[in-house]
Amino acid sequence: MRPLLVELGSDTAVITYLKGVRDPKVLEAALAPVGGVHFFDQRKFLNDVYAEFRKTTLEQLFIGNGLVILLLLVRYRRLRPAVAAFFPCALVVLVLLGSLAALGVETNLIHVVGLDMVMGMGVDYGIFVVDSATDPEEMGTTMLSVFVGSFTAILTFGVLAISRHPALRALGVTIGGGLLLSFLLAPFALLLMEARAPRADA
Fold this sequence. Notes:
CATH class of the domain at 56-192: Mainly Alpha
Largest sheet: 2 strands, antiparallel
Mean pLDDT: 84
Strand order of the largest sheet: 1-2
Low-confidence stretches: none
CATH architecture of the domain at 56-192: Up-down Bundle
Radius of gyration: 25 Å
Distance between the termini: 85 Å
Shape: elongated
Helix content: 55-70%
Strand content: under 5%
């Protein structure tokens, strides 16, 4: 009986496990008038925790990306290049989620966490493209560097996609696939850039 007894200061609580509960709400309402009795629904508690964690993660995702856009505006001091630098990573989210939906993969909180990492790393590729947009030779070097950097990250995280653990597999698919799309879609930042004359050599 010792595991079922919990010392609460000067009081002692007794834990009783219930099985075969069909309607927890009815049982909770029936126990409410009884003094000193508390009904704890473990499944509801875990669902509430998961929902709160999901809400907090989405809020942090939006706030973080809002701060990134603000930082880009400070960096470029113009709206167009700031939006151009952020555009590829935003496009990656749409393409990746659309692809997972088309393949019948049910997304969860692990996918959202992976998308957060993808957007954090993928926006760098857009920045590199925007900063090299006026020099074709520099653009070639930039894309080669982006390819090497993204390819090593894809190999590192992509290996998780073959894991038997569902959470690790979800991270591997999201981050590996997201970084691949980030590299492939990085040149789309040029679509939003203003046409400028190439820089003259000094």
